[in-house]
Amino acid sequence: MSYLVDTDWTADWLKGRAAAVTLLRSLASAGLRISAVTVAEIYEGIYYGRDPANQERAFRQFRRFVATVPLTQPVLKRFARERGALRAQGLLIGDFDLLIAATALVHGDTLVTRNVRHFQRIPGLLLYQPTNT
Description:
A 5-stranded parallel sheet has the order 3-2-1-4-5. The protein has one domain (about 5-130): 5'-nuclease (Rossmann fold), CATH 3.40.50.1010. Helix content is about 60%, strand content about 10%. The chain is globular. The protein is an alpha/beta fold. The longest helix is centred in the middle third of the chain and has 17 residues, at about 75-90. The mean pLDDT is about 95. Strand 4, helix 7 and strand 5 form a beta-alpha-beta unit. The protein has helices at about 5-15, 20-25, 35-45, 50-65, 75-90, 95-105, 115-120; strands at about 5, 30-35, 65-70, 110, 125-130.
C-alpha cells in the first residue's frame, strides 16, 4: 500500500512541524507520493511566502523521497465521475481536493489528510487518520 500525501501534511513537513515529519517518515517505507495538484498548491505558497528561495529548496529536498503523480486521463475521468456524483447530492468539494482524491482512487493509494470532513464524502476513498495529531 502506498500513501498519497495531501497538501496540508506536505506544507507542515516543509515547515518542519514535528508531527508531520514523524508521520511521513513512519510511512515512507510503504511509499509516499503527492499529486501534481499538491505540487501546484505548494508552489503557490512558496512564491507568496516569506522566504521563497529556502522554501523551494526544502520542497526540492522533500520531492527527492516523494514521487509526484501526474494528472492522467484516468485521473481526470475519475474526477469527472466523482464531481458529477457529488454535485447531484449537493455535496461538492473544491476541485483541487477532488483531483487529489481522484488521483488516490485511480492509483489505489490511501490519502493522508486532515481534511477528513470533505474527503469522507467520496465513496471508496481510503483515508489515513493518525491518532495523535
